[in-house]
Amino acid sequence: MSNQKIHKRTSDALVLLERLTGKDQKMADLLEQERANLDIAQKIYQLRIKAGLSQIELARKVGTTQSVISRLEDADYEGHSLAMLRRIAAALKKRVEIRFLPARRLQHA
Questions:
Q1: Distance of alpha carbon 17 from its chain centroid, rounded?
Q2: Which range of residues forms the domain containing residue 49?
Q3: Rg from Cα positions in the chain
Q4: DSSP state, 76?
């Protein structure tokens, strides 16, 4: 028998990500950054849809273009600014709240 770890097959995304990152802090930080980008994009999309607005309508309320709103709703976009998030929040009659939370380690059930 070899010294290699034997992993059970799983489709649990958190388990798979933990295996990929291992103890590599840079990779864990990158994953956390990507998770934050995804969270912001999803929140903008969800709030826009809940308000019954198209990207064009939200863009008009914010004073920007549809392509900017589209970019902001893209999970791969990394250029979110607090000023733009505040403009979107104001257009949707919301406010931006920023919290500093303890760093999280990937966990699975």
A1: 16
A2: 13-91
A3: 18
A4: T
Per residue in 19-53, pLDDT (tens digit) is 777 777 787 788 788 888 899 999 999 999 999 99
* Domain annotation covers residue 19: yes
Give the three-class secondary structure for 108: coil
With DSSP H G I counted as helix, E B as strand and the rest as coil, what are the percentages for the chain, rounded to 5? 55, 0, 45
Distance (Å, rounded) from C-alpha 59 to C-alpha 64?
5
* Residue 43 lies inside a defined structural domain of this protein: yes
pTM of the predicted model as reported, rounded to 2 decimal places: 0.73
Total domain count for the chain?
Answer: 1
- Measured CA distances, 101 to 1, 37, 54 (Å): 44, 16, 33
Question: Would you say 42 and 72 are in contact if contact means Cβ atoms under 8 Å apart?
Answer: no
DSSP string, 45-88: HHHHHHTT--HHHHHHHHTS-HHHHHHHT-TT-----HHHHHHH
Q: Is residue 91 within a helix (H) or strand (E), and if so which, with residue range?
A: helix 82-91
